[in-house]
Each structure stands twice: as structure tokens, then as C-alpha cells.
Amino acid sequence: MTETLPPVGIDLFDVERLLLTEAAEPPLSLHDAEARDRVWDMAVLANPALFDGPVVACGGLERTGPRVLRLSWVRVTYRHYALRRVPGATALPSLFVNVVQPTDDGRVLAARMSPSTAAPGRWQLPGGSVEPPRDGAVLDESGLAGQAARELAEELGISAAAGVLKLWVVTRGENGSVGLTYLAPALPEAVLRADFAAAAAAERVQGREHELDDIALVRTPDELAGLAAPHADYLKPIVSRFSGCR
Asked: Which of 8, 37, 86, 245 is deepest in the core (most CB within 10 A)?
């Protein structure tokens, strides 16, 4: 039986199987398209690092069985999300992968976004927007795990095979955004800090600002209070769940 999932604050869904279906982008009126482009152009003027690359949005989320979710996805570009600032327009929710990277003593790594990013200063899990498949490939669970592994490598310098990342939980935020959260094997704190420092240094050598400017290790949701806001809306529920499930 298919059950459309209504939003209730920050939702966390256990999942053993994820069914993926591509859907078409909803039509947009000329008025809304022009307003979207104006908002996007103003955002780029304020932050030239913004890039209108291809991404995947969430077209819908349904439960089709116990611990089975169907997720429809839509090809858009980052410009699409400028619709959030157009009165009367509706933007599709974003779709992203992120990773719970534990330490071997049971803490979780949180990362702070750099000033040049779209969410400067925000504490969150390492991760990023889902990208559409290329060259006729399909978007499947292994491809999503591969994207999560790539985010770990790019942001933290951690080399993890996609096969060792387990889809742990699916989150849905207050704005409808859907996150596919993977669980990585635990690593020692010293390894995490050394890998992150090396990844940041490699970016500086190339004359670029690293996407993350700091990391922190937290054991409980209460410890998040020591990290200056803003926080991603899913961060506290994820840390709470991890600390209770170890």
C-alpha cells in the first residue's frame, strides 16, 4: 500500500530499500521564471562563487511498505531554488546526501560551512546536493552511495568505498528538503583531523577556499549548543538518534 508522507516538523524515516523514479520538472509560468532569474542574478552578484550547476530535486516521497520508500526525483539546476524567494511561486524540495562519520569513541563529526558557500557558518553533516546521472546512466542506490563517498573525500579527505556506506536514515526538513543519511565506519579522531587538514591545505594550494572551515566532534545533542548557530535542521535529531542507537 502506498502512503504519501505528510510533513511533520523534522521527520526521520527508517529505510531498508529506496525506490527511485525520475519525474518531469513542473511547468513554470513566464512571470515566475523571470522573477526566479532576477533573484538568482542578484544572489550571484552578492556571492560570485555560486554556480548554476545541475542538481536533483525531490518530486515526492511515499512509503510503499515497511521500511520501503519511493522517492521521485527531478532534474533541475541550483537556479531553481531561487523560486523560494519569489512570492506565490513553489520550489521543489532539495535532495541531498550526507554522512554520519563517527569516531571510534562514539562521537559524531559536525562540519561548519565556509563564508563563500550558500550557507555560511552553518553546522551540518558532511555532504552535498545530489547530482543527476550522466550519459544515460540511472540514479540508483549504489550511485547515491558513491556520491556520499565523494563528498567525504572532497570535504574531509576521507577515502571510503561506496560499498561500506550504509543508508541509515532518510530525513525531511521543515522546508521539505530530503536528506539521504549514510553511516560510515568509525575512525580515530587523529585520523579525521589529519585528513581534514590535508584536504583544506590542498584547496588552498589551488587558490580556493575549502567548502568547510572547521569541524567538531559531539557525543550528545546537548553538546551542539556549544557550536554557534546556525545549525542544519536535521543535525540535532541525527545526533540524538546516533547517541541512542550505539
From this structure: 86
